[in-house]
Amino acid sequence: MQEFEPPIRALRLFEAIAETGGLVKAAARIGLSQSAASHAIASLERESGAALVSRSQGALRLSEAGVRLLPHVRQILQSLDAIREELAAEAGLCQGVIRIASVPSLASTIIPPLIREFGVQSPGIAVHLHEGTDQEVADWVRRRVCHCGFAALPVEGVETHPLAKDEWIILAPAGEFEGQLRTTLKQLHRRRFLLSGGGCEDHIRRLFDQDHLPLPDHVLVRQMDTLQAMVAERLGVSVIPSLCLRQRPRRTHVLRLSPRRYRSIGLLLPPESTPTPALARWIALAQRQFPVLVKRIHSHLSTA
User: Fold this and answer.
1) Do 32 and 56 meet the contact criterion of CB atoms below 8 Å apart?
2) Which of 19, 194, 198, 203 could form a disulfide bond with 238, CB atoms 3.0-4.6 angstroms apart?
3) 66-80, 83-97, 190-204, 223-237: segment of lowest average pLDDT
4) d(C-alpha 218, C-alpha 236), whole Å
């Protein structure tokens, strides 16, 4: 086999194709024209001696060989990014890119103020946000698609660091559970149940398992806005994380569970990883501010 030393731009294009599933989007991400990107990926395949991508119904996917190569490419690029950050820090600069992953309830509440504050402290570091379920976030971190993630624990295959607790609450139509501030999961069996999707399903099932109760007959609702609207229209009751309730919808009633239940929210990192200087700054900020922001949101909801 001939010596294989591909251009760094070609490796970044290869990674971008894996993440976007298309040549046009991948080329735009790294600042190449579509024609230049086509030549770059063809050259990469020619030099490697393997078909690294496959085309199907207009989409571009990694071949089996490409999938096996991807972790090594990411390791090379992350090492280069770390070198650039170290050299920038040595010169008194602070530059780089951080890719973070988060579940929707955190991406819409906690993460934006963290990104804003981080931008003030480290204006040369860009933060790219990927949004998914708990397991998707864990998978992206494990495969090093993202440098770190935020999700409900437990998750497997990654290093986890608990940050805060978020209470599970019941969202019911106004007028139901009149005069009650708390109720039990057992009482929900008497009402139509709306199961919050988007990654909450397994956690809610565990809540019922802990009380030795089957999950009620239910309708699965994946979008939180849709679920809250359905509750307001008296189409059912639901159990949701309190951070999902950015503001209390009209014609609804919020109750606590008895006994009170919480989900643990954690920071996810790849196994046996060493944070770059930029990522270390982000982790320090998240560990310091995350509990403060969660407490602030909980306080607002309790007085709303």
Assistant:
1) no
2) 194
3) 83-97
4) 9
Question: Residue 143 is encoded by which pair of tokens?
Answer: 């495969």
Per residue, what are the HEC states of the chain? Answer: CCCCCCCHHHHHHHHHHHHHCCHHHHHHHHCCCHHHHHHHHHHHHHHHCCCCEEEECCEEEECHHHHHHHHHHHHHHHHHHHHHHHHHHHCCCCCEEEEEEECHHHHCCCHHHHHHHHHHHCCCEEEEEEECCHHHHHHHHHCCCCCEEEEEECCCCCEEEEEEEEEEEEEEECCCCCCCCEECHHHHCCCCEEEECCCCHHHHHHHHHHCCCCCCCEEEECCHHHHHHHHHCCCCEEEEEHHHCCCCCCCEEEEEECCCCEEEEEEEECCCCCCCHHHHHHHHHHHHHHHHHHHHHHHHHHHC
- pLDDT per residue as tens digits for the range 241-290: 988 886 667 889 899 999 999 999 999 999 888 888 888 889 999 999 99
- Phi, psi for 54 (deg, rounded to 5): -135, 150
Using one digit for the tens of pLDDT, what is the confidence trace for 48-94? 888 888 887 667 888 888 888 888 888 888 778 777 766 766 555 45
Q: Which of 95, 74, 64 is nearest to 12 (CA)?
A: 74
Residue 116, pLDDT above cutoff 90: yes
Average pLDDT over residues 153-165: 93
What is the value of pTM for the model shown? Answer: 0.71
Q: Which domains does the chain show, CATH number per domain? A: 8-74 (1.10.10.10), 92-162+265-303 (3.40.190.10), 165-263 (3.40.190.10)
The token pair that represents 295 in the structure block: 């407490």
| pLDDT reported for residue 124 | 80
